[in-house]
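During the no-cost extension, the postdoctoral fellow (Dr. R.K.) reprocessed legacy sequence entries with the updated structure-token encoder. One reprocessed record is reproduced below for audit purposes.
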Amino acid sequence: MHFLTHDVALIHAVNGTMMVGQSDIAPERNSIQTLVAIKCGPESRLTTFQNTRAQFLGRPDAFQTLTEELLQEL
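Re-encoded structure tokens follow.
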């Protein structure tokens, strides 16, 4: 999380998807996400969400590294 101001934060996340009936993630569905959160009084709210498939074109090692990191979270 990176605070842009005292009440606005930029969040980068990665995501793996496990399909129904499967016990492992589907690496071709790995995603990189960007979110923007704002503080509204005592609460925070997400105002923006962007999701992109993690392809790492030309960098198969980066794709494999992300998949391994996500598998460790299972």
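Strands lie at 2-5, 8-15, 31-40, 43-53. The first helix runs from residue 60 to 72. The remaining legacy entries will be reprocessed before the final report is submitted.
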